[in-house]
Structure formats: C-alpha cells, structure tokens
Amino acid sequence: MRVLIAGAGLGGLCLAQGLHHAGFAVTVLERRSASGEQPATYGIHLNADGMSALRDCLPEKPWQRLLDSSALAPDKIRFHDQDLRPLAVRDNEAHGDTGPDLRRRAVSRDALREALLTGLPDGTVLWNKQVNGYTETTEGIRVHCADGSTHSGDLLVAADGSNSRLRGMRLPGLERQDLGIVNVSGRVTLTEPLLAQLPAALTDGSVNNVVPSGPGWLFMSTWDAPASGRYLVWAWAESRDTYPADPTAMGRAALRDHVAQRTARWAPGLHRLVTSTGTDTIAAIPLRTMPALEPWQPSAVTLLGDAIHNMTPMAGIGANTALRDADELRRALVAGGPLTDRVATYEGAMRGYANEALALSTRNARSAATTGRLPRAAFRTVLRAAEAVPAVKRRIFPAPPPRH
Ligand SMILES: Cc1cc2nc3c(=O)[nH]c(=O)nc-3n(C[C@H](O)[C@H](O)[C@H](O)COP(=O)(O)OP(=O)(O)OC[C@H]3O[C@@H](n4cnc5c(N)ncnc54)[C@H](O)[C@@H]3O)c2cc1C
Question: Which pLDDT score, from 0 to 100, does residue 275 have?
C-alpha cells in the first residue's frame, strides 16, 4: 500500500516511521525545508500515551536517540495558591509503575523531530512540498502541491497541523471555535537568584498551576536546554474581555506588564518570574478548540493530530494525542482488510479518546479563565479536600484507563 502523509510534524513523522518499519511505501510531503524553520523552540512533555506510541512505532535507532536526547520528568501536576501554599498534587506515578519506557519525559521539539527523522530512507520526506489539494481517482488519491508536482497513493493522511488545509476539503464545515480566552506566555531562564525564591517542586519538571483566589491562572513547566540552560515556560490564562485592550493587538511589553500587574501581590518569586521574562519571548495565544467530533463516512483520506482535533494547550496533550493517532492508524493499517474498514477502525477509536482530550483541555481552559469568585473558591476547596481525603482525591484525579 502506498501511503501519502501531508505534514512532517510530530504525528506525521511518527506514522511514517511506524509504517515504513511495517513495510508500507510511505511518502511525506512537507511545506517547510529540511532545515526546519521550526516554530519557536519549546519543550514537549511526553506522557505514557505519547511514549507508548513512540515505542511501538520507532525502530531501535530513533527510539534510542529519543531516550538519549530527552530527560525523565516527574509525572505530577501541582496546584498552589498565589502565595505558593500547596493546594493539591495529582501524582500520576502513584497509579502504578508504567515501566521504564513509558515514564514521562521532557524533550525539546527539535530533538524530538531529529529522533523522528532518524533512519527514514532518503526520499521518504519530500521537503518544500506544500500540499494544496487532492483528487480521488479510480486508482486512488492524487495529491497536488504548490510547485505543480502531483503524487499518487492509495491512502492520504492529513497530518498538516492546526490550520489544516486538507481538513477543509475532507470535512468541510468542521472548524475550530474561539473560546474567548487568551493566554499570555513567556519563557525565562532559571538563574540562581530566581531559583532561590521558588520551591524546588516548582522547577523539578512537573506541571505547576497557580490558582489565585481572584481571576486568572498561571501555568508553569520547566525544561533543560543544552544551549541555554534550565528554563521555565509560563502561561497566564484570562478571559479576552478582562484584558485592558484586545490582547492580540497589545505589544509584548504591555502584555508582560499586564501579567506583572495581575501578579503584583503574589509570592515574590512568582512575580519576579514574570518581570524577569524577556519581552522577545512573550506571546498572546487565543485559545481555540475543535468541537466534539461526530462520526463521518470513512474514505481513502483520513486525518490525524492537530489537523482533526486541535485543542487548547491547557491539558498538555496535543502532541501526545497526535502520536497516539499515529500508532492507532498504524495498528489499523497493519491489521489488514479493506482500506475503508481499516480507516474506520482508526477513526472510531480516535474520535473516542480525542473527544475526551478536547473536553478536558476546554474544561481546563474555562476553569483557568473563570471570572467568578464563587466557582474559583469552590474549585480551590475541592483541591484542598482532595489533598486531605484520599477517597475524594481518587474521585477528582481518577487513575488513567489501561492502554493496549
Ligand atoms: C507553546 C506550545 C507548547 C506545547 N506543549 C505541548 C506539550 O508539552 N505536550 C503536548 O502533548 N503538546 C504540546 N503542544 C501541542 C503540540 O505541539 C501539537 O499538538 C503537536 O505538534 C501536533 O502535532 P501534529 O503532527 O498534528 O502537527 P504539527 O506538529 O504542527 O505538524 C504539522 C506539519 O504540517 C506541515 N504543514 C502544514 N500545512 C501543510 C501543507 N499544506 N502541506 C504540507 N505540509 C504542511 C507543517 O509545516 C508541520 O510540519 C504545545 C503547543 C504549543 C504551541
């Protein structure tokens, strides 16, 4: 079977590895050049879903490269109040050992991409190929690129990211929704004076959330970068309406000053994190999400990753879900049978877990941006109760379902 993949991102490359290894003829068409022109470098945390997909799709060499270029990170989500008093910890490690291969890892996006390209034969990825569209013929699918070239295959996989052009053709009318929430994010190098003002738990690689009694929410995560040292990425979430102006039109310094003003009475270490952040790293990110996915008729054109279930970053699972898609699709294709049946198997499974992921990330985003003091107070009370009473904690933070 000849499989065409539009997009050499995380999901597309993982699928290419898995299918190439299983003996399929794979061609990946990527609009960017081989050197990358990657979006701003940032880290990805790979959870057990992502690691499981990578382990099953990658042959030994790229898998080893991934392990060598990433670092173990605690699988914990912590909640603090604005004075850095702990509210609750969701400890995923307490749900039993997933085994050494599947533990949560931190990796730079570039290092992950390098691992995903390792060992793919020359000519598997065709660079500078912007896919403009496709036609279905009696012999399969013909893909049309902006440079005039065409490429034929039996199956086309749209792995072309959140602004997917192919989604508009395959599932017209399925569009992302704006949630009316805007994140301001920044990246700060963790210097000794900054580290001295922060508890170790905040910078150990776990996910940290500050849930203030008033509006807003601060999300933080840390990574080690070989070139620039240890850094922390923070994201401030707030309803679009309560910024002093349209946040997407505000300058970077004004955005940072706004978050600094919002956090002025917080623990000094937190406020300092914001004021120490270089304005060149500041960005305003309007949160968008795909609606819940309803079933559609399977065909020889399918989709994976952000192209089909772009979600807010508020659950940290966009890449992990894209990798899971790649593995699910690989499994379905390898299993054999008529092509559309195999696609249907993948799409049915994908809609199930993707809808859960979409709902979780939207819920997290809405909870972060609430302006109501009552829901926020209730949320903080639930967190405190969870920390105090194990039975409440099991209910609030249930164990993840088993994976195959
Ligand atoms: C700041 C930030 C932090 C994040 N952190 C995390 C995290 O910690 N954990 C997590 O799970 N997720 C995280 N995510 C989300 C994650 O990056 C995405 O969900 C993930 O990259 C989706 O993978 P993908 O393969 O679907 O798309 P992408 O990785 O976006 O790849 C799409 C590819 O398609 C190419 N392309 C687009 N259009 C065309 C075309 N017409 N023709 C050919 N090629 C095309 C693009 O150039 C790109 O290479 C984060 C996102 C952001 C913005």
Answer: 98
Given a cut of 70, the residues of the chain with pLDDT beneath it are 36-41, 96-97, 225-228, 400-404
C-alpha to C-alpha distance for 49 and 236, rounded to whole angstroms = 26
- The span from the CA of 149 to the CA of 156, in Å, is 16
Q: How close is the Cα of 205 to the center of ligand 1, in Å?
A: 21
What value does the mean pLDDT of the chain take?
A: 93
Ligand 1 centroid to Cα of residue 392, in Å, is 36
Q: What is the pLDDT of residues 290-342, one digit of tens each?
A: 999 999 999 999 999 999 999 999 998 999 999 999 999 999 999 999 999 99
In this structure, are residues 251 and 245 in contact, taking their beta carbons and an 8 Å threshold? no
pLDDT of residue 131: 98
Cβ distance 383 to 377 under 8 Å? no
Regarding the beta carbon of 130 and ligand 1, being less than 6 Å apart is answered: yes
Cα–Cα dist 181/286, whole Å:
6
- Residue nearest atom 26 of ligand 1, based on CA coordinates: 305
Residues 6+ apart with CB under 8 A from 58: 14, 17, 18, 21, 66, 115, 116
Beta strand residue intervals within 97-205, DSSP E: 105-108, 125-126, 131-137, 140-145, 150-153, 155-158, 177-189
CB atoms within 10 A of CB 326: 30
| Token pair belonging to 306 | 């952000």
Nearest residue to 95 (alpha-carbon basis) of 328, 393, 404: 393
Architecture in CATH of 2-74+101-176+290-367: 3-Layer(bba) Sandwich (3.50)
According to the model, what pLDDT value does residue 36 have?
67
DSSP states of 178-225: EEEEEEEEEEEE--HHHHHTS-GGGGSSSEEEE--SSS-EEEEEEEEE
Among 354, 282, 321, 312, residue whose Cα is nearest residue 180? 312
- CB–CB of 14/66 below 8 Å? no
Which residues have C-beta within 8 Å of that of residue 338, sequence separation ≥ 6?
none
Kindly give the distance from the C-alpha atom of residue 190 to the centroid of ligand 1, in angstroms, as a whole number: 26
What pLDDT is recorded for position 371? 85
Burial class (CB in 10 A: 0-12, 13-18, 19+), 45: buried
Rounded Cα gap, residues 59 and 105, in angstroms: 19
Answer yes or no: pTM beyond 0.85: yes
Q: How far is the CA of 161 from the centre of ligand 1 (A)?
A: 5
